[in-house]
């Protein structure tokens, strides 16, 4: 059974999507439609911008979404998923690629999400840190005992968990987790505490937009971040999507559940190969590849 997976923030690179734009009339049309919807030429920044341009949240998130979704659409009849999932932002890409919502609505939501997250980051200084080489339950126990805001945010693969919280909370956690035996406890160059309670102002803004967006049944089950479970019902998809910004990304659980449900091929749709690397930490035997037209 084929699983198509969609990357999140951090996978961007200058030049992303240019091959698609140059070689597919359908891709070009969708990219130009995106420029109109966003009100600026995001294609100029994607194809010829700087790393700094692409690091702006309002650019990064729509850029990765566009690369992933347009690539999926240009696959045509070759896009035949039995299951899909997307890491954080990638969940929106997965929902559009499987027909759960329209390209236009998906892009508008992603743009709104990016701006809402940026605003939430400006309310309180916060950050994230990658913890490598400890069991999840050890990390959970340590962060639970810290009085400052700090939570487990991204369960990326066994032995790799990203935590999220206030600057002070993360500093304390990094120290305590290093003492607990972490191989690495490294603060990340991000502007905020994504997937933590500090994203509540962004969740509230996005919730209203998601409620007012039309969703329909996707062509196959989507494994959502908040619980790593397969879902097909639009109402449940919406509810989980609203909870996503302040809840952890349960990617380890997602991969394990997909394997348990018969996944034997794993195809990454979008920039980079991060998600293929994460699966190798769970099961090296399952073949992985990048989608290509």
Tell me the number of structural domains: 2
Strand content: 15-25%
Q: Kindly state the mean pLDDT as a whole number?
A: 95
Give the number of helices.
Answer: 13
- Shape type: globular
Please identify the structural class as seen in this structure.
Answer: alpha/beta
Helical content band:
40-55%
Computed over alpha carbons, the radius of gyration is 18 Å
**Physical arrangement of strands within the biggest beta sheet:** 8-7-2-1-9-10
List the secondary-structure elements in sequence, H or E: EHHHHHEHHEHEEHEHEEHHEHE
Gap from first CA to last CA: 20 Å
**What's the CATH first level of the largest domain?**
Alpha Beta
The CATH architecture of the largest domain can be given as 3-Layer(aba) Sandwich
- CATH-derived topology of the largest domain: Malonyl-Coenzyme A Acyl Carrier Protein, domain 2
Low-confidence stretches: none
CATH superfamily of the largest domain: Malonyl-Coenzyme A Acyl Carrier Protein, domain 2
Counting DSSP E segments of at least 2 residues, the number of strands comes to 10
**Biggest β-sheet strands, sense, barrel:** 6 strands, mixed
